Amino acid sequence: MRVMGVDPGLTRCGLSVIDSGTGRKVIALDVDVVRTPSDEPLALRLLTISNTVEHWMDTHRPDVVAIERVFAQQNVSTVMGTAQAGGVIALAAAKRGIDVHFHTPSEVKAAVTGNGNADKAQVTAMVTRILALQTKPTPADAADALALAICHCWRAPMIARMAQAEALAAEQRRRYKAKLKAAR
């Protein structure tokens, strides 16, 4: 499975692509950070992110895009920018028929480090180790994008099993309701 990991942001948007192998083996294919100037109009900043993300999707052909889920912070404008960037990325994936999954920062940290409260240095160190990189990915947005992709690769089998269980439960519920209706 090829996963594009995205750490959305207006000033710095981390992008990564990894391939998952058997078990927990993952291989980094590409990583970068899209930067937009803070004095540029919002629409142009989102356009820059969109154009870059679309180029990545067309070039790398990911099977799924893993995006960091926005969480409440003190700075509302930062949250809004992050959400807008994430929306542009999800839209680009949807236009291409690529599945999108959102993961919270604590899910990503727990998957990569074993600690949902790990700091950025711990995440970067573990990403470097897991992917057997020669140097630490910088800035932190690049490491976070790689961590998102790793997290999704490792959580994907569980996500698929949950979806199957939910579909089975829905089908059983439908059959039971039909059986009750027929008995009346």
UniProtKB/TrEMBL annotation:
Coiled coil: none annotated. It comes from Mycolicibacterium moriokaense. Mg(2+) 2 binds at residue 68. This is Crossover junction endodeoxyribonuclease RuvC. Keywords: Cytoplasm, DNA damage, DNA recombination, DNA repair, DNA-binding, Endonuclease, Hydrolase, Magnesium, Metal-binding, Nuclease. Its EC number is 3.1.21.10. One of its GO terms (cellular component) is cytoplasm. It catalyses: Endonucleolytic cleavage at a junction such as a reciprocal single-stranded crossover between two homologous DNA duplexes (Holliday junction). Binds 2 Mg(2+) ion per subunit. Mg(2+) 1 binds at residues 7, 141. It is found in: Cytoplasm. PROSITE patterns: RUVC (PS01321). Its cofactor is Mg(2+). It comes from the Bacteria. Transmembrane segments: none annotated. Belongs to the RuvC family. Its main location: cytoplasm. GO terms for biological process: DNA recombination; DNA repair. GO terms for molecular function: crossover junction DNA endonuclease activity; DNA binding; magnesium ion binding. Homodimer which binds Holliday junction (HJ) DNA. The HJ becomes 2-fold symmetrical on binding to RuvC with unstacked arms; it has a different conformation from HJ DNA in complex with RuvA. In the full resolvosome a probable DNA-RuvA(4)-RuvB(12)-RuvC(2) complex forms which resolves the HJ. NCBIfam families: ruvC. The RuvA-RuvB-RuvC complex processes Holliday junction (HJ) DNA during genetic recombination and DNA repair. Endonuclease that resolves HJ intermediates. Cleaves cruciform DNA by making single-stranded nicks across the HJ at symmetrical positions within the homologous arms, yielding a 5'-phosphate and a 3'-hydroxyl group; requires a central core of homology in the junction. The consensus cleavage sequence is 5'-(A/T)TT(C/G)-3'. Cleavage occurs on the 3'-side of the TT dinucleotide at the point of strand exchange. It holds the Pfam family RuvC.
